[in-house]
Structures are given as structure tokens and as C-alpha cells.
Design brief:
alpha+beta, BirA Bifunctional Protein, domain 2, Herpes Virus-1, Rossmann fold, 3 domains, 5-stranded mixed β-sheet, 18 helices, 40% helix, ATP binding, bis(5'-nucleosyl)-tetraphosphatase (asymmetrical) activity, aa-tRNA-synth_II/BPL/LPL
Length: 515
């Protein structure tokens, strides 16, 4: 656990030092759980968004995109259930005065037990080597069996109190588990209360005539209310999907863990409309498809796992999370939900307008069922960034900090250096920049020794460094260095574009989903 905390601190420090994420309004001591994406961060975030969009929209002929407004008619949120049911269980510690989500306290406690199981497994793997059988170990090791039983009991009781909205039972679960305040260790808790997460505001020229509206807490409802508009204007046939990326806002009880949980965040969602009765098949298909998208980035299959929901939302008949191994443990990265026909039927009821699809093959109208994939862009940013940040010990005994971002996502694809700031070398380097920038985001750097420049670009996550030297003036060649291997080779300037493209091209990366 201490190792994880240390790694997380490094992530926070590196994100600021290398221009990825800043605390919002930092000169005024910041605003809690609100962050700004800096010059490198905005590029990485854009590249993640583009990678998702190409895979989700561009590569599917039956999925289109929209960009719905953040502000919507207030009845939208009544129909969706957010006004009445968009709550989190809140609990305060009387001694530390800290406020927490009750479910997160229990989930974190459960995850600590799981981490102990993982440590036992890792020790056994080292001890037995290739002869190790994890399934057999889990079934026979008494410590693992005891801890897994505890996890299952906690999960069952957590699901019950959530399902029954048993707030007294929620507190009792926290007390029975002996959960203390993460900040102080105190176990002096208040009762559990429900807390609505929506930010409210008003529209109108005067206070007397103002209308209460909300900053959207999710992007999905903008898709549902536009379902029929998109279907008719796009002449879409079932099954088809509508995708959207955009900002959402939640007044989180306790926003923490950097950009993992913020009050202003960005979602990448796709709602897939299907014929009733086929939703479970499509749910399975999209679970598999989305995991393949994640794995295409090469961040290690061992860092992902599915978590099937014990407690289903009021609109769902199946739900699972893709969890990622963040520096603070496995947490939700993406959700896949079979939402049934709840949303469209609710909007039909509250609006008085039909939201149905006419199936020409069956010669009848029906309200489609929906399978949703929803991923937090900020969480995906954190997953990529934290997984990529590494400390390496080199053969000469020194260490280097390297940000091994998937090359397709890196903010800058290459940095170009003149060996020295004279003799015509800067002019050649800048000419290379002018040529490459039409296809790639590239960076020019002439300050400090080349070795320091290499290290700077390693830490910033740039896949290639290109050095112009005096021989370049004679043979039109340069030295290209690869970030991950540190291998260097001499190549023609005319070949640079093709060499870089082979490593960073979106097609090359997304093709891995077909493997």
C-alpha cells in the first residue's frame, strides 16, 4: 500500500512538472476537485478522445455522433430519475469533520482485503514458479479462502443496504467492519444521509421569472431525447448507436484521488439501440469490444478486470464495469449497461411525445432497448498517465524517469534537436519541423546538452528524438532515437515521416482489436 501511495505522489508531481495537469485557480489556492489540463495534458486528452471516437464512430457504419447542450429542459432530469434518485450516501466523521461517501468507504475496505489476497498469490508465484496454479491456490489456501469469504459477505451486505436504501444498515456495516476515518482513524461516525449530486442554476432575465435548471450530471440524456431526430434524419436502422463526448458535472460529496473523481469531468458515451429481446447478446458483444479497445493500447491485460454489478440501477437488467489497476488499486474505468427501454419510455411519458422505431421488417413500432458504454475521459487519462510513468535503472547504474505513453496518444510524436546552436544546424532542424508538422505534432529544442534533452523528452513522453549534426549537412541524414529502447540509428531525412507514422498511426493501433 505504501508503494502505491508513493507511486501516486509521483504521478501528481510529474503531471504538474511536465505540463499535463494543473490545480485550477492555483494562484488563489485552488478549487477543490477541479483541475486544468496544461499544454501537454490537453494534447494527450484530445488524442485519447480522438482514439475513442475513431474506434466508436468512424469504424462503425451504424454509429453516429452528436454534441448535445449541457443545459437541458429541467423535466429531462425528472424523467430520468435524477431529481428524485441521483443520490449518494453521505457520512461524516465527528472528530475529523471529514465527509465521505459511505459506499466508497466500504469498497475501499473490501479492496484492501483483496490486495492481501493478491500479495499471497504473488508470493506463491515466486515460490513455485512455473508450477504455480492460481485457481488451485485460491481454492486451497486457508488465508485466501477466509479473506474471499469476507469479501463475499461484505459485497452481499453492501448490495442489500444499497438496494433497500437501508441507511441505518449502511452505518452498521461501517461500524461492524471497524472502518475508521482515512484521515484520522477515528470511528466516531454520524448517521448516513442521502445527498443529491446535481448542480442547480437558473435561466431568466430576472429572479422572479427564472427557471430552475441543472448542469447535466451525465451526457446520456442528450442522446435519448434526440433519438428520433437522429434516427429519422440519418435514416438509421436498428441496431444503431449514437455517440457523444462532453462535459458533465456532479457535486461530489468527497472528490479525491486527483482527476479520478472531479466535480467537472468529461464522458465518452455511446448508446446502442437494439430490438427488445436482443439486448443481452449485444451487452456481451460490447463488453468484449470495449475490452479489446483498452487492450489495443498495450497497457497490460493484467491491469484490467470485469466487475459485474451486485446492485443494478433502476433502469438496468445487466451491468458491468471494466476496472483498471490505478496506483490506488482496481477502480471503475468504464461501465457497460443494458438499460432496457427505461429511458425512452420515461421521456415518452413526461414529454407526451412518441419515441418509437418503426420496424419495416416486422411492420410494427416499438421502443428500442439500449446498451450503453460509458467511459470517463479523465479517468482514462489517469489510467494512461499513471501506467506509463516508470523509473528505469540503466546499464551504467544511473536511472531515468520515462513516460512510456502509447505512441498513438503521445502529445508530441517527435522532438527535433540541432546538436549545437550554430553552423547552420538550427536551420536544418527547423526545416525538418516545418515539413513534419503537417502530419504530426512536433517539438523543437536547442537548450542544454543533447543527453539532457533526451531525458527531458523521455519524461515528457515523446516517442522519438531526432538530432541534426554536422554530417547532416553533407549526407541529409539524422540520428533518430526511440524513447522506449533508447536505440539510435542513422536515417535519411526523407524517411522520417514514414518511420514516425509506422509507430504512431491510429490504424496500426486499432488493428490490434482484430487480433
Amino acid at each position: 500500500m505504501a508503494k502505491q501511495e508513493d507511486q501516486f505522489k509521483k504521478v501528481l508531481s510529474h503531471a504538474k512538472e511536465y505540463g499535463y495537469v494543473f490545480q485550477s485557480s492555483e494562484i488563489y489556492d485552488g478549487l477543490s476537485a477541479v483541475y486544468d489540463y496544461a499544454q501537454n495534458g490537453v494534447e494527450l486528452k484530445k488524442n485519447i478522445r480522438d482514439y475513442w471516437w475513431k474506434a466508436m464512430v468512424q469504424m462503425h457504419d451504424n454509429i453516429v455522433g452528436i454534441d448535445a447542450a449541457i443545459l437541458m429542459h429541467p423535466t429531462t432530469w425528472k424523467a430520468s430519475g435524477h431529481v428524485d434518485a441521483f443520490n449518494d450516501p453521505l457520512i461524516d466523521n465527528k472528530d475529523s469533520k471529514k465527509r465521505y461517501r459511505a459506499d466508497v468507504l466500504v469498497e475501499d475496505f473490501r479492496e484492501k482485503i483483496n490486495q492481501k489476497i493478491q500479495k499471497d498469490i504473488e508470493k506463491a508465484q515466486k515460490r513455485f514458479g512455473d508450477a504455480f496454479n492460481e485457481e488451485e491456490f485460491r481454492a486451497t489456501n486457508q488465508n485466501v479462502i477466509r479473506r474471499q469469504k469476507q469479501i463475499d459477505e461484505i459485497s452481499a451486505e453492501l448490495a442489500r443496504v444499497q438496494e433497500e436504501n437501508d441507511l441505518a444498515g449502511f452505518k452498521q456495516l461501517i461500524v461492524d467492519l471497524g472502518i475508521g476515518c482515512p484521515a484520522s482513524g477515528s470511528k466516531n461516525w454520524t448517521e448516513v444521509k442521502q445527498f443529491n449530486l446535481m448542480f442547480g442554476t437558473q435561466i431568466g432575465a430576472s429572479a422572479e421569472n427564472a427557471t430552475q435548471v441543472y448542469l447535466r450530471p451525465e451526457t446520456a440524456q442528450g442522446i435519448f431525447v434526440n433519438f428520433l431526430n437522429v434516427q429519422k434524419t440519418g435514416r438509421m436502422k436498428i441496431p444503431f448507436g449514437i455517440a457523444q463526448t462532453g462535459k458533465a458535472f456532479r457535486n461530489e460529496i468527497v472528490a479525491r484521488q486527483f482527476i479520478f473523481r472531479m466535480r467537472e469531468f468529461e464522458q465518452m458515451e455511446m448508446q446502442f439501440f437494439v430490438k427488445p429481446g436482443t439486448q443481452k447478446e449485444w451487452y456481451t458483444t460490447w463488453k468484449e469490444t470495449r475490452l479489446k479497445w483498452h487492450l489495443s493500447l498495450g497497457m497490460g491485460s493484467e491491469n484490467y478486470r470485469f466487475h459485474d454489478h451486485d446492485k443494478l440501477a433502476h433502469y438496468a437488467d445487466a451491468a458491468a464495469d471494466i476496472e483498471f489497476n490505478f496506483p490506488f488499486g482496481f477502480k471503475e474505468l468504464e461501465g457497460i449497461h443494458s438499460r432496457t427501454d427505461f429511458d425512452l419510455k420515461a421521456h415518452e411519458e413526461f414529454s407526451g411525445k412518441k419515441l418509437q422505431y418503426f420496424d419495416h421488417e416486422e411492420n410494427k413500432s416499438y421502443v428500442p432497448y439500449v446498451v450503453e458504454t460509458s467511459i470517463g475521459l479523465d479517468r482514462m487519462f489517469l489510467a494512461v498517465f499513471s501506467n506509463s510513468l516508470q523509473e528505469e535503472e540503466l546499464e551504467n547504474g544511473t536511472t531515468r524517469t520515462v513516460l512510456k505513453l502509447p505512441a498513438v496518444l503521445a502529445p508530441f510524436k517527435a522532438a527535433v534537436f540541432p546538436l549545437v546552436k550554430k553552423d547552420g544546424l538550427p536551420e536544418v532542424a527547423k526545416k525538418i519541423i516545418e515539413d513534419l508538422k503537417w502530419d504530426f505534432n512536433v517539438f523543437y529544442d536547442e537548450k542544454d546538452a543533447v543527453g539532457k534533452r533526451y531525458r527531458r523528452q523521455d519524461a515528457a513522453g515523446t516517442p522519438f528524438c531526432i538530432t541534426v549534426d554536422h554530417d547532416s549537412l553533407e549526407d541529409n541524414s539524422v540520428t533518430i532515437r526511440h524513447r522506449d529502447t533508447m536505440d539510435q540509428k542513422r536515417v535519411k531525412i526523407s524517411d522520417l515521416r514514414d518511420i514516425i507514422k509506422a509507430e504512431v498511426d491510429v490504424k496500426t493501433w486499432l488493428k490490434k482489436m482484430e487480433a
